[in-house]
Design goal:
By secondary structure, the chain is mainly alpha-helical. The chain folds into 2 domains: 1-52, Orthogonal Bundle (Arc Repressor Mutant, subunit A), CATH 1.10.10.60; 61-199. 70% of the residues lie in helices and 0% in strands. The protein is built from 11 helices and no strands.
Length: 200
Amino acid sequence: MKEKTDLRIIRSKFMIRKAFLTLLEEKGYHNITVTDISKKSMINRKTFYSHYETKSALYNEIVDDTLSMLEPLTLLKKGHDIKDDFQITQVIKILDNVKKQRLVFKILMEDTTSNDFSHKLKATLSNILVNNINISITAEQTGIPLELLKNVYSSIFIEIIKWWIYQNNVSSSDAANKMFSIFSKNILLMLDVKDIYSTH
């Protein structure tokens, strides 16, 4: 009996999330009501509220699940060369994760009624940049404000992700190499910024 109940819960949440994403694409977050979600998912409001306290709770769950795709970035190692095999592997994993869920990613990123996802994405990337690579050291060495560097690097990474989700004929390894080219030492030197992976 418990297994049947669990399956019903899984199915209900799946239908709710699917309906919400469809509505998000059609009309944007701020124009969606719980009634809209209930009608689209063919699940009554009581069932919706048994899973989510609010519309924002549903949205935040989807956002958190989507941002978990960036987890391989937390394994990047300070002091390692930018083209170290391990570093490249982590970035490729992220791009592969994003590609598998690119429809969800596109819907969240293209919502013109809310910038919440974009802000959380940028904040997550900024924290990773500070904690997992030497961006704070770069800021100290160059005198460039840390917040500015975080914005620059996280913005570039976000643009790479945006570009990647629309590509059908570019492998994840090729896309990773394009990203590394942007972050390469020569480009950074042109901007008067030292290699963020260098400890010297």
